Amino acid sequence: MENSGGIQGNITAGLAGRYAVALFDLARESNAIDTVAKSLATLKTGLTESADLSALIASPVVGRGDAASAIGAVAKAMKLDSLTGKFLGVLAENRRLADLPKMIDAFDAIVADHRGEVTAKVTSAHPLTADQLKALTANLKSRVGRDVSVATTVDPAILGGLVVQLGSQLIDGSIRTRLNSFAQAMKG
After folding, report:
1. Residues 6 or more apart whose Cβ sits within 8 Å of residue 172
2. What is the spatial distance between Cα 55 and Cα 36, in angstroms, rounded to a whole number?
């Protein structure tokens, strides 16, 4: 896999990217890319839904051994594949669990690039319906000419509309931005 330039170069730029590339390479060698991606998606959901899990990965107080034991138990309870479980153990031993969310995002981006997809990060004020998501995905696909994987987040602070990050391009159609632009125009 090439690590120079383009999307791949941007992904691997930081520490989280280097760990993600290492995990991707191991997953590819084991023909387990989809399995690892599924386990990481489960883990990402767990991090979002569990304050205890989020506290575990972020705590500098938890020692290496305790963190490794705890994250091993989490991997078993969540029924994560063995490669992902071992990866989490390495992160615990290297005191890198705090970077796990960034590593998951980087892994997802590497997988999307490997599949010839573009990942779009979409922020909306309210959860998108299946029909809205389907229409948005089709629109983005026609815009970039490639398959698009859409990762959604909800942020009520944008009030309405969408904010779409597609690679380095940011399309901000949020009501908050429009109101801020209007306020600036009124100031003169």
Report:
1. 163
2. 23
Both tokens of 82, joined, read 């063995």
Name the phi and psi angles at 185, rounded to 5: -65, -35
Which residues touch 140 (CB under 8 Å, ≥6 apart)?
118, 120, 148, 150, 164, 166
Give the span between the Cα atoms of 13 and 8, in whole angstroms.
Answer: 9
Tokens of 75: 């991997």
**Rounded Cα distance, 162 and 150, in Å:** 13
Asked if 136 and 150 count as a contact pair (C-beta separation under 8 A), the reply is yes
Nearest to 72 by CA among 98, 55, 52, 92: 92
**In one letter, which amino acid is 153?**
T
pLDDT exceeds 80 at position 187: yes
Q: Are 36 and 103 in contact (CB under 8 A)?
A: no
- For the stretch 55-111, pLDDT in tens is 999 988 888 899 999 999 999 999 999 999 999 999 999 999 999 999 998 998 899
Dist CA 117 CA 146 (whole Å): 6
Compute the distance between CA of residue 2 and CA of residue 9 in angstroms, rounded to an integer. 8
User: Can you tell me whether residue 12 is helix, strand or coil?
Assistant: coil
Which H or E run contains 62? Answer: none
